[in-house]
Prior knowledge:
By secondary structure, the protein is mostly beta strands.
Amino acid sequence: MPAHRPTLATDLDTLLRSTADRRRMLHWLMASAATPLAACGGGAEVSIGGVGTSTGSSEGSSTVSSCSIIPEETAGPYPGDGSNYNSNGIANALSLSGIVRSDIRNSVAGASGTAAGIPLTLTLQLVNTAGSCANLAGYAIYLWHCTRDGLYSMYSTGVTAENFLRGVQQTDSNGKVTFLTIFPGCYAGRMPHMHFEVYPSLASATGAANKVKTSQIAFPTATCNEVYSTSGYGNSAANLSAISFASDNVFSDGTELQMASISGTTSNGYSASLVVGIAS
Length: 280
């Protein structure tokens, strides 16, 4: 079938999703007087990830003290997970050689395109809401999103031969994966977002039939405005000004559990993180 630019109408295909749980109150952990090494970098490090409070050491290990199940959302019309078609037939990026990678800015499997845009490093931490928020190691997360022009590789006109901005990774012992990508553009009818699917293992991440969760990631409007004030993001600023979280068909019921925590600048790039809770 012919490839198209994403529109609001195509994203309305799935409206059923679970009601977002209210985020529990986040607490900063304070070092006690009995831990003098805290001043030397050995104390608790707290990061806010949208679902719960994550604490850990500067070595990168972390635990989550509270968590809720992230809402189930539509995969949209451009998942590339074998569940639908593009102009070339069944579209399944999960079957491509090289799709398991951390840097998803380039195409793989013989395609040579590179997605331009402001760099974004995204870390997702997968935790078990049915098991005291324990980290879930050995799962697989498939991430995909649009270009800075609002196009989806494999589907949209001009990038049907590309597969950039799609990638799979296995969660480590801390339940984490980190992707190096670009900040997505904003196309008409949707707030800026990324899609992801969770699979119970890397071996099972071969098609949509095996996924255990589908959801989306939101980004703070202030950061989006910063990014879209730079050159290269086309109509993103105008598209963003015409939409809000309240009117977005996916995020209108709240973004507490899907809003990424983000820092950085347009000149140096951004780092974002989100804790993803599933019942396992």
